[in-house]
Every structure is written in structure tokens, then in C-alpha cells.
Amino acid sequence: MLDDRQNLSMNSSLPQTMDNAPLCYEFFNGSCPKLDYPLFLKVPLYIIFGFVVILTVLGNLFVIITIFHFKQLHMPTNYFVLSLAVTDLLLGGFLMPPGLVQSVETCWYFGSLFCKIYNSVSIMLCTASILNLSFISIDRYFAVCQPLLYQTKITPFVTLIMISICWSVSIIVGFGIIFLELNILGIEEFYYDNFVCEGACVLLQSAVSSTASSFLSFYLPGIVMLCIYMKIFRVAQKQAKSIQDSKSKNMQSSLSKEEKKATKTLAVVLGVFLSLWLPFFFCNVINPFIGYSVPPVLIDALVWVGYMNSTFNPIVYAFFYKWFRKAFRMMLSGQIFQPGSSRTNLFSH
């Protein structure tokens, strides 16, 4: 994923042409120009972004604690959810705070080495988050469409292999692109001439890099998820029709309710995923082909919209279900500290 936080435009890296513009480092030669927002705008931005950070960290931390604590949740499906929650927790705790400062102050104050690490982890975590969603959809496919084969196909060992693949690919893509400078391959001179100055942390990508990384981190997993969910929806429709043709009204009523819940869940999952990440990745691909003319403020906003997926994941994949809400109430009331609470039956009414 490209965290294309372009808080500098092509011309903004040329401070000698902007003598009266504020600088990131006032007394440092070669400092980047700074877009100095007024205080009445900075304060609301810090509050809003700060709330998103807190919500992301607490929401995913709750999911992690819940799955670790309750033994009933120790199953392959929830291991995927746990991996997703760890990914999103790291995104909220590691990426969002520096990104918050950079977005509001329009300068990078954390050094060039941490900038590389930050951009690498950004690509890694966003890729891992999306790949985790893809593996969850595969898990759901076997659970809904092949229930008799589910326990033999999705074993704890297979789950571990899938999660390992997710993180391995994400680490290789994230750190490989940045530290090997594959993102600027072929445009090195253009990058150093126009985007490098003190106080900048710009992740620029060439046309080949942006297309390849976007395809691997978004479009391919997105297509896989879409195909799997369409298959699940068709199978569910056939099951519903079969039930309607049966003579058991009780069974029809019961399964129709479950069918509506499953359909609603899939719609929310797919809708949130596509709506939050698609705008950014669309701009990410076209930006190199139009001379990097997409406004940096717009790209920064789209990055945060994409980050919001990590904020909503605990809601979509966890709080949507009654047993997670029950675990949440137990946590708030302190019942999880009572002896034997880890063996509580969360699925009972």
C-alpha cells in the first residue's frame, strides 16, 4: 500500500523561491516550506484525529483481549480475526500518531531513518490488514458453502500457514519497496530534485511501482473477496429457495433470519472495505500518469479515510455479533477478572 503522504508539492521543495513562507526548520538551510494552519483549524484537527487514534487502539485492543481470554473463542476463524486486530492495533498505535502530527503540522519532525521505517511499516500493515480480510473471506466461504469440509480444510495448522503467508508477504512488500528504493526506480533524479528537503517524509512512487503495489495490496485481494462473497451470496440464495420449497415452516423461519443476518454482514464487510480504500488506491494508480498533480491535501485525506478501515474493523467483524457484545459487557463490568471467567459460554442467551 502506498502511504502517499505528499505534504509537499513539486514546487514546495524549493524554499529559495518562497522567501516569505514559513519553514519546517526556521534556521536550517534546505528546510521544507511549511503550510501553517491557523490555530482554530489545528485544534479541531488534533481532536478529531486523536479520537480516531484512540478509538482504533481501544477497539482492536478489546478484540485481542477477548479472543485471548475466552477459551471458547480459540478456533481458526477467530485466529484470523486476532491477526487482523493485531494489524489494526499496530496501525492505530504506530502509524496514526506520527501521521497525525504530519497532517496537521505539514512537516515531518521525526528524522529521515524513522521516515523510512514509518513508510515501510505503513505499507506492511495496510497490506497485512487487507490480506487478513481476504483470508477471513476464504474462511467464511468454507464455513458457509462447504460446512462438511470446513474442519478438515481450515485446521489450526492451515490457519497458521495462511497467517504466516499474510505477514511474510506484507513484510517483504513493505520494507522491500522502501529500503531497496523500488518505489522511485527510474525516477530517482526527479524525486531528489523535487521532493527531498529537511522536514519532508514523502513516499513517492513511479508508475510501475504504484501500479504493481496497488494491484498486490488492494485490487487482487479485493477481486478475490468480491468473487468469494458473490459465491457465498449465490449459495445462500439457493439454500433459502430450498428452504422455502420445503414444508417445514419452522425451519424456514429460523434459517430466513440467519440468512438475513449473513447477507447484512457480507454487505457491511464488503461495503466498508471498498468504500474506504477504493478512492485512495484509484488516486494512487493514476497520480504518476498525470504528473503527480493530485493535490497533496486530497491524498492525505484519502490516506486517513483508508486508515478508518482499521477503526471500523472491530465494529464490523467483532461488535456486530452478540457474543462479542457479551464479552464487552463482561470486560466493562470487571467480570473477566473473576475465577473461571475464561470458560464463560458466550453463545448462551
From TrEMBL:
Organism this protein belongs to: Astyanax mexicanus (Blind cave fish)
GO molecular function: trace-amine receptor activity
GO cellular component, one term: plasma membrane
Gene3D superfamilies linked to this entry: Rhodopsin 7-helix transmembrane proteins
Keywords: Cell membrane, Disulfide bond, Endoplasmic reticulum, G-protein coupled receptor, Glycoprotein, Membrane, Receptor, Transducer, Transmembrane, Transmembrane helix
Cellular location(s): Cell membrane; Endoplasmic reticulum membrane
Listed name of the protein: Trace amine-associated receptor 1
All copies of domain G-protein coupled receptors family 1 profile, residue ranges: 59-317
Similarity comment text for this entry: Belongs to the G-protein coupled receptor 1 family.
Membrane-crossing residue ranges in chain numbering: 43-67, 79-97, 117-136, 157-180, 212-232, 266-290, 302-321
SMART domains recorded: 7TM_GPCR_Srsx (SM01381)
Entry membrane topology: Multi-pass membrane protein
